[in-house]
Design a protein that fits this description.
about 50% helix, five-stranded mixed sheet, Nucleotidyltransferase, domain 5, elongated
Length: about 400
């Protein structure tokens, strides 16, 4: 194991000497600025000595072919305000400091604070105000834009990264975001693919934008997933969009298609008056929480008997899609809730909507993608492995172990 380098502690006597200049918060902040300035400048002088091969004022430097050539003043922005740093120069212009690199204007970690605030939905003006209030640092809108625009390259890499060859479950859904397109603000669909891999880990496979949600666009998304390495999916959970199951089966012919129960309930409630909504939802619950598919169908018949005169369309809706409703009943009971609540995608959408609602609309699709990508990083980092996943993995091994092996999945 690599040993951590021990740093000599700062003596109490030295701290007391510093604090004689003042003990108020602003005094301590000024002391930190001074201390940081001196340490950084000393470190860069050490780098210069290493670069030249001799210490300052050392006779060995005479006629060495290169020498010190004064300093350049540079202002760095950071947590405790702005600090002016003297960067040493050499006559040949070959010195490249590592402590504070050329063209660097901010302390390491300062950009991360800007990105963190931006990812929480704060506007450029809010970020400016917060940095000035908390750290006494004035930053321009262009600086904030430069920092946030800097993540687009890593966002593109993320969007095109190779994927696993086999996924147990993939949730495919879209949310709508207001953005300017061809000169006017409109609601545009942001397509989201949320996966659960063979280890029970959740992830977002990508984001795509289009004019509106449609099976044709989803076909393009699925084709892209295949091109990025996905060979097979056991279960694809989708809404009731017309042509969606056929699009999935075109790209992944062995995948089972599961209609999202949440979307089925929402579609059912389109026919229900406000007065009856709670009761109808309560009567549908025994259907999707039944122990078996046969029990679920019996519960649906009881629902029909009660509501067929008042809301016959609900029964037709469930009967029409029944074969796409029941696949998850074959799952171990402990993991069925993953499918019928679609928490993986619903909670993600809720988190994203909280962030984008503060923006009103986005000037471009790229601006929307940038914020959504940053927000995703915060949300996905908190996701944990699905509970009781071992039972699901044993089920998958029994039902499609040969497909997992053929796809090169979990060994």
């Amino acid at each position: 194991m690599k040993k951590t380098k021990q740093v000599a502690p700062v003596s109490d006597e030295l701290i007391d000497a510093w604090l004689k200049q003042g003990r108020k918060p602003e005094d301590v902040n000024d002391l930190l600025k001074q201390f940081t300035k001196r340490v950084v400048e000393r470190a860069m002088q050490g780098e210069m000595a290493e670069h030249l091969g001799y210490e300052k004022h050392d006779p060995e430097g005479n006629n060495s072919g290169n020498s010190r050539n004064g300093v350049t003043l540079k202002t760095l922005k950071g947590d405790f305000g702005e600090v002016e740093i003297e960067t040493p120069r050499d006559r040949n212009g070959e010195f490249e400091p590592r402590m504070v690199k050329k063209n660097q204007t901010r302390w390491a970690g300062f950009d991360d604070k800007i990105l963190s605030m931006y990812s929480r939905g704060m506007s450029v003006r809010d970020i400016q105000g917060h940095l000035e209030e908390m750290y006494g640092v004035e930053v321009s809108p262009s600086l904030i834009s430069d920092v946030t625009d800097g993540v687009m390259e890593q966002a593109r890499i993320w969007q095109n990264r190779p994927l696993e060859s086999f996924y147990a479950i993939v949730f495919l859904d879209a949310l709508y975001v207001k953005m300017r397109h061809e000169g006017r603000v409109e609601n545009r669909a942001v397509y989201v693919a949320v996966s659960i891999d063979l280890e029970g880990k959740k992830d977002v496979l990508g984001l795509w934008t289009g004019a509106s949600e449609g099976a044709k666009f989803w076909l393009n998304v699925l084709t892209e997933l295949r091109n990025r390495g996905v060979k097979d999916i056991y279960l694809a959970c989708v809404d009731g969009l017309k042509g969606f199951p056929q699009a999935i089966e075109t790209v992944f012919p062995e995948a089972q298609v599961q209609l999202c129960i949440v979307h089925m309930i929402r579609a059912s409630l389109n026919y229900v008056t406000w007065r009856d909504r709670r009761e109808v939802v309560g009567d549908l619950k025994p259907v999707y929480r039944a122990a078996t598919a046969d029990e679920a169908e019996r519960q649906l018949s009881e629902f029909e008997e009660k509501w067929k005169k008042k809301y016959p369309a609900i029964s037709r809706l469930w009967r029409e899609h029944w074969e796409r409703v029941i696949p998850f009943f074959a799952f171990p009971e402990e993991v069925r809730k993953i499918v019928y609540t679609t928490n993986a995608v619903e909670s993600l959408h809720m988190s994203l909507r909280k962030i984008i609602k503060t923006r009103g609309s986005f000037p471009t699709e790229e601006a929307a993608f940038k914020l959504l990508y940053l927000a995703l990083g915060r949300v996905v980092a908190k996701w944990e492995t699905v509970q009781h996943w071992k039972q699901m993995l044993n089920y998958l091994d029994t039902m499609c172990g040969d497909r997992i092996k053929a796809a090169g999945g979990l060994r």
